[in-house]
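Complex record, two chains
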Amino acid sequence: MWKRGKGQLWRALPILCTGLLFLMPVHPRVPVAHTALAPADLAIRFEALLGQHSVLAADLMRSRIRGDDDFVQAANTALGRNTKDMTDLVGQLFGTGTAEKFSPLWSEHIVELFAYAGALAARDDTAKGDALHELTEYEVELGDFFAGASQGRLRPAAARQAVVAHVGHLTGQADAYAAGDYATADDLYRMGYQHTYDLGLTLAEALLPAADAATLREPLWRLRSQLGRLLAEHAVLVEDLTRAAVTETPDFAASGNMINGNTRDLAAAMDTLFGPAAARQFQALWADHVEQLVAYAQGHQDTASTAMAGIERRLGAFLSGATGERIGTAALTAALQKHDMMLMRHADAYAAKDYATAHDVAYQTYQEMFDLARTMADAFGASVAAKLPRGGAQTGHGGMAAIVSSLPGSSSSGPGR
Amino acid sequence: MPPYARISALAALTLGLLAGLGTRPAPARQPSPAGQAAAAGHPRPAFHADRTYDAVAAPVRLRIPALHVDSKVQRLGLRTDGTIAVPDRTDVAGWYDQGPRPGQPGPAVILGHVDSTTGPGIFIGLAAVQPGATVRIDRSDGTYAAFRITHVSRVPKVEFPTDVVYAPTLDPTLRLVTCGGSFDRARGSYRDNVIAFADPA
């Protein structure tokens, strides 16, 4: 990786060292924490960390393009923390040996993505070509690594394709961002997040024992994962929008469209669970929530804080009702208050150019929302399950019994998923 | 105990821990850096959150070319005993309208009879449908959703996998359900259900 594009990488070295320092404790041995969490729980956390990697890497690349070196350093520290957390989980899920190989490979592609963004910033096509060349080599290496770790359950071509898509989303959003095409950049930002988050499921299904992989396909685990993806993304996108609001960057409108997309997806999830009327009610409350956070970042702290307190109570009551009061209004309101406070702290830290704190708060907020989503998914799932049809369907009268009993599958088989 | 029931009791406790003491900390009440940064005095670009929710339209027609199925779709709810209602006619399919609409996130469920007392029903061929067969569902607003059968299972009604068929996820899938297996003359009912699972095409 040091053969070409040396100039770009040497310039990046002081900044990247911060992130690499975060990774130092994992070498040469990757510590494996022994916790009581089930493999499926670890796997959905792995999915969340992969999604977080995608947005942190995109933020790093964008700040490099803007020439905002302080932000770059803080973003890289957050990426290092994310890589360390992922490496720990890889160790718990797939073994220490796999984690030890994963960590340097993963870190290498971050370095190359950074070099790519630096080349865009410098409008240096040669350096950009060098970075792309290195990224292409990396895609093969990492794809082969995942395929090898799966012991044949993940084909090398499929693994490489997944890595190629991940890198493509990140380089594509950087290209568009550098060109001032923020709508495209943000479309790719969301696509990259969703793809990388879901890549975690693909990898977990391929690398985990069959029974654990099957657990991940159970409805409850899918809902935990999917709500986690949407709610954690909400935190990321609010932070992106409030940063744009504080500094009045030209991607403000595109960033607003991006969080509106997430809000629509969350409303659609509420529709799936509780129907379209509930979805509309939720979307109105959620829209208020996002608008007030932006208002806070734009200088309307007093009115926004007052409004947010009311929204938290109404949203808490709404969500409590959706759970069939399995979670009380007070507990949900308190959780939403905490969420809002963290997002306000993030906006304040960013406005004060305290990027280290801003990233630290953002990192915590992401994890908090993922954990909150898991709790909500469980309560929502229980609420919906209580109303589902009981038993099988009486969809036959016996007039064709002789033929029906001879149809394929005459021996009963399980549901299959 | 079903998985949802097991975890529901833990949900409130977990949320309490997540929320800490549930009190609003103080710092943001003070004049904030965000406010100072925004105090330049010129108008800021406005952000308007999207408040329009466009629900996916309800299904009105089902087409499965491989089974020569082309049918209107009736709405179905629950019977008073908590079981699912079934289509009034054996040549018409029914959509469980308390669940997702086909094409929106989640498992949409469509039922059809395998037979009447005298002849075949709309889903007589469902047990033999091959993976890869296409299913098209027209919706009331003129749009449609297309699916592809992934696999077919047969299960005893007494062990019907409610969780697998109905429980919510955000995957936009489709389940087609009918009867199968041997007929219990004493009960006037087939002993099994046939379930075809389909993913977006």
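Note: The radius of gyration of chain A is 23 Å.
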